[in-house]
Design a protein that fits this description.
By secondary structure, this protein is of the alpha+beta class. The protein folds into two domains: about 1-60; about 65-128. About 40% of the residues lie in helices and about 25% in strands. The protein has two helices and six strands, in the order ααββββββ. The strands form two sheets. Strands 1-4-5 form a three-stranded antiparallel β-sheet. Helix 1 packs antiparallel against helix 2. The protein starts with 10 loop residues before the first helix and ends in a 7-residue tail after the last strand.
C-alpha cells in the first residue's frame, strides 16, 4: 500500500516493478510446491508453468528481459548487487548462488540491477 505522500508510478516504472513482483511470486510458489504431496504437486505444477509461460510472453512483447545470473561468476561487469559480499572470504571466487530479485533489462538497457546472494568457490583467484 502506498502512503498518502507517495506519487503513483508511471507506466515505465510500474511495468518493470510488476514483472519483478510476479517473478518473486512464481519463485515462492515453486518453493511451496516442493513441499506439497505428489498428488497436489502435479496439478499445481502445471498451473505454475502456465503462469510462468504467460509472464514470459508478456515480457517478450514489451521487450523486457529478467536476468538472475545464477551460477555465474560475480563481478563488476554484471548488473547485480551482492547482498552478502562481506561473507566471501579473501581468495574465494564469488559465484552467484541465487537471486533475490532479477535484473530488469528493457530494450537492451538495464533499468534495475539484480540483487543476489553469493557463495565462495575454492578457486584460487590470486593467480598463484
Amino acid at each position: 500500500m502506498k502512503s498518502e505522500n507517495e506519487k503513483p508510478l508511471s507506466r515505465e516504472e510500474a511495468v518493470p516493478e510488476m514483472a519483478v513482483d510476479f517473478w518473486k511470486l512464481l519463485r515462492v510458489s515453486e518453493r511451496i510446491l516442493a513441499s506439497l504431496p505428489e498428488e497436489r504437486r502435479t496439478r499445481l505444477s502445471a498451473q505454475i508453468r502456465f503462469s510462468a509461460g504467460r509472464l514470459s510472453q508478456h515480457l517478450d512483447a514489451l521487450d523486457i528481459r529478467l536476468a538472475t545470473f545464477e551460477g555465474q561468476k560475480f563481478g563488476p561487469e554484471l548488473p547485480a548487487i551482492a547482498i552478502n559480499a562481506e561473507d566471501i572470504e579473501e581468495g574465494q571466487e564469488p559465484l552467484i548462488e541465487s537471486a533475490v530479485e532479477p535484473a530488469v533489462i528493457w530494450k537492451g538497457r538495464v533499468i534495475q540491477n539484480a540483487r543476489v546472494v553469493l557463495k565462495g568457490s575454492d578457486a584460487d583467484v590470486s593467480g598463484n
